[in-house]
Amino acid sequence: MSQPDRRAALLIGGTSSEREISLISGAACLSALRALGCEVESFDPKEKGWISALETFAPDVVFNALHGTPGEDGTVQGVLELLRVPYTHSGVLASAVAMDKELSKALFREVGIPTPKGQVLSWQELLSKDPLPRPFILKPIREGSSVGVSIVDQATDLRSLQTHWTFGSRLLIEEYIPGRELTVCVLEDRSLGVTELVSRRAFYDYEAKYTEGVTEHCIDPPLPDGVRQQAMHYALQAHQSLKCRGATRVDMRYDPSAPTPKGLYVLEVNTQPGMTPTSLLPEQARHAGLSFQELVLWMLERAQRDCDG
Question: Of 205, 270, 279, 283, which one is the catalytic site residue?
């Protein structure tokens, strides 16, 4: 593996609800970047003056280890475009559309990717009448890591949920898809594999994603004929339809009784998958023969190719 002679700026932390996860991802990426021979300096957008400090450092490339808004929704990407510095992961438009669940679901439907039925409502509309039979899913429109996601069943008090809601006046209501939780990681033009997520919690929520031992990751799980291939096809199609670049993770539900092809539904595309010790992208990459350092190097090289092109 070649040793790059690069000045790499590492973006970590930020101001989103996923700040702590970003810090953990950032620590792992910092070690890898140093092991690759990069001169690395970390920058936290929560700190005043980080943009001018980044300009002074004058990096060859930015490794974006931020999660959530504004580091994953196109905002920071726009800053980096103005600074004319190459950066990892997707660009402004793809990041913004992928983070907006209403827009991304509309695009999935347009290109024939099955996704759960859903609608965007105000709290007033939701409290007046259930829009779907229970159980259904309630989601913030622009959050990641399942932050704010709830299953609304017969016992759910919606007014109690509203009391603790901090994600804006509009919310996504989505049909509940029973079955299995699958995810596929994509590196530019290839799907790496399929992982089934078996959680001890009611669903694959924030705690299930980031608490060690709560969720079992089953790589290449036993699936009926064609399901694995179809999941990998949908993942790549979703990645490409949003015009993503670099690495993404595509989350799905698999219901064998559903009328969709092979019973699969695409939920969302994560344009900056976690790089923590329990994260799925490094795990799938390792299973495909790519070490953590090799994955980080691939991301750096892809970022600089995008800029050069």
Answer: 270
Give, to the nearest 10 degrees, the angle between helix 101-110 and helix 227-241: 110
Active site (annotated) includes residue 210: yes
Contacts for 162-167: CB closer than 8 Å, 24+ residues apart? 162/123, 162/127, 165/123, 167/140, 167/141, 167/142, 167/143
Alpha carbon 192 to its chain's center: 15
- Annotated active-site residue 87? The verdict is no
Which stretches of 100-140 are DSSP H helices? 101-110, 123-128
Does residue 153 have an active-site annotation?
A: no
Residue 289 to residue 303: CA distance in whole angstroms: 21
- HEC assignment per residue over 24-79: HHHHHHHHHHHHCCCEEEEECCCCCCHHHHHHHHCCCEEEECCCCCCCCCCHHHHH
- What's the alpha-carbon Rg for the chain, to the nearest Å? 19
Annotated active-site residue 128? The verdict is: no
Evaluate the omega torsion of the peptide bond into residue 256 and state whether it is cis, within 30 degrees of 0: no
Ordered structural domains, the chain, with CATH = 7-88 (3.40.50.20), 97-114+178-271 (3.30.470.20), 118-175 (3.30.1490.20)
Contact between 144 and 270 under an 8 Å Cβ cutoff? The reply is: yes
The residue count of the chain comes to 309
Q: pLDDT tens-digit profile of 101-155?
A: 999 999 999 999 999 999 999 999 999 999 999 999 999 887 755 678 899 999 9
Active site residue 268: yes
pTM: 0.90
102 included as an active-site residue:
no
